[in-house]
Amino acid sequence: MSQKSELLFKITPKSGLTDAEVEQKRVEFGINELLEQRPVPLYRKIWHHLKDISSLVLLLAVVLATYMAIFQNGGWTKTIVISLILIINVVIGLYQEASAEKSLAALKAMSLPTAKGRRNGRDITLAASELVPGDLIYLNTGDQVPADAVIIEETNLTVDEAILTGESLAVSKTNFKAETNLTDDERIFSGTAVVGGSALAQVTAIGMATELGKIANLLNKTQKRQTPLQGKLDSLSKWMTLFAALGGVVIFSLSMGMQNKALADSLMIGLSLAVAAVPETLPIIVTISLSRGVKRMADRNAIIRHIGAVETIGNVDVIATDKTGTLTQNKMTITKYWTPETDIKKAADLPEAGQNLLKMLGLANDAKIMEKDGSKEVIGDATEIAIVNWLKTQGSSRQQLEEKAPRIAEDPFDSAKKMMTTVHRLPNGHLLVIAKGALDRLPLTQSKVIEAGQKAHDDLAAAALRVLAVGYKVLPEDADPTAWKEINSNLKLAGLIGLIDPPRPEVAAAIAKARQAGIKTVMITGDHLVTAKAIAEEIGILDSGQTAITGTELSEMSDAELKQSIQNISVYARVSPSDKIRIVQMWQELNKTVAMTGDGVNDAPALKAADVGIAMGVTGTEVAKEAADMILTDDNFATIIKAVAEGRTVYQNIIKAVEFLIGVNFAQIFLMVISTIFGWGAPLLAEQLLIINVLADGIPGFFISKEPSEPNIMAQDPIGNDESLLGRGLMQRMIIRAITFTILTLGVYAYGRFVISANNPQVGMTLVFLVLALGSMIDIYAIKDSQPISWQTFKTNKMLNWGLLLSMTLVISLTVLPHLRQFLHLTLLPIQGWLVVLFGSLIPIFILELNKRLTGNLQLNFENS
Ligand code: ADP
Ligand code: MG
């Protein structure tokens, strides 16, 4: 930013731009968007895939095979097969990457910011991307500034420009004085956050022409972070690769030493084993699973802003949620009121004495009527909308009231203060001060009235009503309307209103579900303790053994005390946004994963501190959304629980893919090494291993990412932060599977070579090829369902069935069709051999099922531990 800017602009009339002007400017200046990074060219992407370890090994194998074909008359089979596999690998990788990118782009489009502006003489809400220079925009606390602009009018406007300056502090801004020589104080910049006050501003620059646009290239360079799961998988893959390489080296030396095979042959088999054993499809499966999770969450109203949140939300231990609007409907209605003269009465029953209370509420009110997509709607805080609606039932309106007593100053609402004040000029010239807010926060003069008010307050709150108090006083004509210290003192109590905000109907069930899933739900609210408790009991948050505390009690607790009792606190009432951070941090110190909801500007730090920051899509400010990892498009608590289930499904599918891919890979290594030690030679040729790798591992593994949620997904405790990837029986299952396949394949090899045939290694090889490929494809059904297999197991993922059918048909045709068979050095089996294949392929699924039933009790124990 420059201190003085050369900027010169033409003032737009108060009615805003006309449609015709907007059109013309759009042609001239384009769209208000930061350009994405330049797309990566195709050759760079291909290179990226060739660079990974298994592609490099394959490439080496192609070179070796070509060498053997030319100089040792080895035939071109290997070269062709390996090249094809290499190409398939790269193409699949490119395709997956493209589809993951596409879904992420779609995601970005869903969380695009909006702006409030004025065009053709009307107030409108529009996509921020549609703004053009000259547009008039309204800015309020919590908005993200959508473009560079100069300030036309402002009240107490303060802005956080950290995104540009790196310093997070509130900077005050002022109206511009002249059209030339603007200072930075008179301008606001795209991407910065309004942290206080409000303004009317005129857009001066959009898109890449903004100050933010000028540094956008820097911002684009930020690296994407790995999720914990990706990290754990990465190190697992590294171990596997190391192990595969070791297996390759062992096989190479054994076949050189024991069998006196040619160097090239030995190298080839070593390389192939290494390729087959590296779980190269795993990273692809992780990416697909995550991006599929993102999409499924979006379908359920939860928009993920960082892909890692898909995983984290599945593992949350604690969800700290706002009450108003998230647990409740945010549809407030004033049902009762109290004044010193009337006592508690129903809202519909409004004698003269109650009218004054209503008028004051109407004056100290910020709800606006806006036009959106052609229809009128009342915009503002639900509390204030309730007041506007009450006014309407009495045939009155804000405008009518303000004509008689125009507002001349305001001290806006803020959830730390829990009150707001407005100052009005009465027809006789005197000033009327009206403050509305929490009864315990209004600066009232002590009196008998307050005692009665307090009693009425408690009665209303106990009925789960949100209570708002109104205080007032009249000042002489010449009083200073902005001397807030003076103004916010010695008020008289005008009355109270009680607003009902019913819980969302689906929330009680969602909380019960969360509890079953080992997740604690905590209510955080600015409302009074009594109101909060009444609602918490209604929806099942506050049950026996749990307590509710106030922000004051919270601040009196030391960290140690809080850590001790935090497990038993379910409700925090009358808290400020700054208390939220402390709650998050205390849970985190107990090594729990915490999700926290928020909507206001001052919630942003807590949203960032939480493991999953969740912003409200409807009532949330742009600033809160920016700080969040997830946005709820329906503001609904139940949506969070749906997202948890989706996150868990993604995690579980990835674990299933690990189980599927890695167990058999180990078996392949053992098989090759042991059989070589036995002096049987390689029971599978390089090209056979590689084909199994693609058809029996790659394709089915890919479809595991499409598995739907298991019904019991919300009946298990969350995965702990430091819980091993191989926990919950995974290690044991993989070992069982690896041993099963090793013994099985060695057995069928020996049977084929020595029993069915008279020492014909090709018969043994064909049996191993079929049993290994088919057996590992069939037992996917035991892996994909953590419960014992039932008919349901075969019905939940039709794509997988078709994929398996295709893979199995291909595998079988390779051993049946004459040309293919010869090409791969396989042989046609006698009927006896096919019987072995049939039974042999069913053994692994049988053993896995048996194991599931035997250890079933063990797994159930996890649910209660
Ligand atoms: P939450 O959103 O967590 O329910 P808030 O911080 O919005 O809590 O509100 C806390 C208290 O502030 C309410 O109990 C009420 O007394 C008061 N309050 C809420 N909204 C307004 C408003 N628009 N004007 C004045 N006071 C308000
Ligand atoms: Mg609120």
TrEMBL record:
Assigned keywords, A-Z: ATP-binding, Magnesium, Membrane, Metal-binding, Nucleotide-binding, Translocase, Transmembrane, Transmembrane helix
Residue ranges crossing the lipid bilayer per the database entry: 53-70, 76-95, 239-257, 269-290, 657-678, 734-751, 763-782, 802-820, 826-848
GO CC, alphabetical: plasma membrane
Source organism superkingdom: Bacteria
SUPFAM superfamilies: Calcium ATPase, transduction domain A, Calcium ATPase, transmembrane domain M, HAD-like, Metal cation-transporting ATPase, ATP-binding domain N
A GO term, aspect molecular function: ATP binding
Main localization, broad class: membrane
Subcellular location: Membrane
Signal peptide interval: none
Domain named Cation-transporting P-type ATPase N-terminal: residues: 1-70
Protein's UniProt name: Cation-translocating P-type ATPase
